[in-house]
Amino acid sequence: MSPEFEFEEADTGNTALGDKRYLNKRLFSFGDPSFKNNVFYSYPGEFTTPLTNVISLTSSADDIVTSVSAWRNYIISTTPHAVYLSTLAENGYFTKTVNTAIGVPVLDKRCVSTVPTGVIFKSGAKVYILYPNAYASDDTFMNVADISKQVSHILEDYTYDATYSPFSFTTSSEYVLMLPTQ
Q1: Average pLDDT for residues 149-170, to the nearest whole number?
Q2: pTM for this prediction
Q3: DSSP collapsed to 3 states, 40-82
Q4: Residue 68: count of CB within 10 angstroms of its CB
Q5: Does the CA dihedral 71-72-73-74 come out positive or negative?
Q6: Using CA atoms, how far apart are residues 17 and 19, in angstroms rounded to an integer?
């Protein structure tokens, strides 16, 4: 890898640790065991996530943020038991809880992908889509639908392997879920 693409993470003491995603010209850091319910974000174009720039989720104290994705102008955050939608406002992000019945477990944290119509994610033995309510005045009112009927027999029989974890990605027309096995 050429030097201009290398990224060395420095622990400066004022930056959150954990998983990182670069979305909407900001670096997002989440999954830090010391700050389980928080997503930290950088200023536009910067690569440090100060502890003062925080999206606080209202999940239980034991829930850790498992994924962060960008969909349209929103940030979608998940915990094992809930899904949240955040909108950039003047003083940071305004966050609302979208669903508390379904979340993304830690083992499925790489199985969240966005498509133009919504966010598709695996949660245990099911695959769901989070999409805007067609009858609402704005697209922050979301519905969740189970879309795993055709592949339910595969998902129900899937055994997680410690070496390989499931992941997903999207193409221009499809959601691809990879379930590696040995």
Answers
A1: 79
A2: 0.81
A3: EECCCCCCCCECCCEEECCCCCCCCCCEEEEECCEEEEEECCE
A4: 24
A5: negative
A6: 7
